[in-house]
Design a protein that fits this description.
Elements: E1 7-11, H1 16-31, E2 35-40, H2 42-45, E3 56-59, H3 70-74, H4 76-93, E4 98-101, H5 108-116, E5 121-125, H6 132-137, E6 143-146, E7 160-161, H7 168-171, E8 186-191, H8 198-209, H9 213-216, E9 219-224, H10 230-239, E10 243-247, H11 253-259, E11 262-265, H12 269-278, E12 282-284, H13 294-304, E13 308-310, H14 318-329, H15 332-344, H16 350-361
Parallel strand pairs: 1-2, 1-4, 2-3, 4-5, 5-6, 6-7, 8-9, 8-11, 9-10, 11-12, 12-13
Length: 369
């Protein structure tokens, strides 16, 4: 890597929902000849395994007001301030041309340092509603880029719709041929985001067990579950003679999704983006505990296009889900139409569009790969 190449600092962390689009931008900028550093916290560092090796990972002191007791929350401002001072010192030593934040409290040090040093900066919001940190910085950065459109914005703030960047492994399977359901082996993919989802583990195994025998005998399930749920979920599938692969994390989601006839998932921004770029029918279950209900907003486009079935947690029962699975897998033409409709919502060029915005901010508009 050329040490004189322009430097991009990407700030992201917390969950795969922030880290996966950050990874997509890192991959694209490296191809454009940039150096890339990732600023994240200890939680975000767990999701860096897929980042290119040439990306320098910097772990910063951070914190969140969403977890922990009163004492832990009282210490958050000090941790963020310490992280910001550290980020300022690092950016003075190796000055970035642009700083891009993808949301989450772990982005505060890098974004605050960029503002203090008056560096060109941008935030990218993956969800249909701005997260707390992105909302705070929306009026303080050069550009606000959005993954979902429309995204609710604070009054007086304009945004650019670029879509949600997908990792190279997903982009390589863009528009992968869909095999409609039929009387042959079929795949059902169950994913609850990068951290799993208890409600999917509670409901999906019984819903699959309740399917008509003609469907159930052809079905293989790949189910991502939390560590504490893996054993009981696997036992439930095995007890009903269902071929299932139950793991805490799938490192090959793009392959599994491209092979699936149907996906049952949370409607996190990255999952919705992957579904629309690869093009697969889905049953989406938004996270009810979300204060801003952003996952319902994320699902809106796929549902309106007829590519996804929305099932709020209040109506997400084994009986109701089994009925929906049977409707999709029992209608090959309808499932194929859902897959095409999902593709119609995709923005496979999102990473390229975001990279172009970065170079515009750096005064390098027109630079080609």
């Amino acid at each position: 890597m050329n040490p004189n190449a322009p430097l991009l600092v990407i700030a992201a962390g917390g969950t795969g929902g922030h880290m996966f689009p950050a990874q997509a931008l890192a991959e694209k900028m490296l191809r454009r000849g940039w150096r890339v550093k990732l600023s994240t916290d200890e939680r975000g560092a767990r999701y860096t395994g897929g980042f290119p090796h040439s990306v320098e990972i910097e772990t910063v002191a951070s914190g969140t007001f969403a977890r922990g007791g009163a004492l832990a929350k009282a210490g958050v401002p000090l941790r963020l301030a310490g992280g910001t001072l550290s980020a300022v010192w690092k950016m003075r030593r190796d000055r970035p041309r642009v700083v891009v934040g993808f949301g989450g409290y772990s982005t505060v040090p890098a974004m605050a340092a960029a503002r203090l040093l008056r560096l060109p900066s941008m935030v990218h919001e993956q969800n249909g509603i701005l997260g707390r940190v992105n909302q705070y910085f929306a009026g303080k950065v050069s550009v606000v880029a959005c993954g979902v459109w429309p995204t609710e914005m604070p009054e007086g703030i304009d945004a650019v719709h670029v879509g949600n960047p997908v990792r190279m492994a997903v982009a390589e399977r863009a528009g992968a041929g869909y095999i409609p359901p039929g009387d042959y082996p079929m795949s059902l993919l169950v994913i609850g985001g990068s951290q799993g989802a208890k409600i999917l583990s509670d409901v999906v195994p019984q819903a699959v067990a309740d399917l008509p025998e003609a469907l159930r005998r052809n079905l293989r399930v790949a189910h991502q579950a939390r560590a504490e749920d893996v054993e009981r979920v696997a036992e439930h599938y095995a007890g009903h003679g269902i071929d299932a692969d139950v793991e805490t994390f799938f490192h090959d989601i793009p392959r599994r999704m491209s092979e699936a006839q149907l996906v049952v998932a949370r409607s996190g921004a990255s999952t919705v983006a992957d579904l629309s770029v690869i093009g697969r029918p889905s049953v989406l279950v938004p996270l009810a505990a979300s204060i801003r209900d952003e996952q319902t907003a994320n699902a809106r486009g796929l549902v309106a296009a007829g590519a996804a079935i929305l099932m709020p947690e209040s109506r997400f029962t084994a009986g109701a889900l089994s009925e929906q699975i049977a409707l999709v897998l029992g209608d090959p033409a309808g499932a194929e139409q859902m897959a095409r409709a999902a593709l119609g919502q995709g923005r496979p060029e999102a990473a390229e569009s975001l990279a172009a915005l970065v170079e515009q901010l750096a005064g390098m508009e027109g630079h080609e790969e």
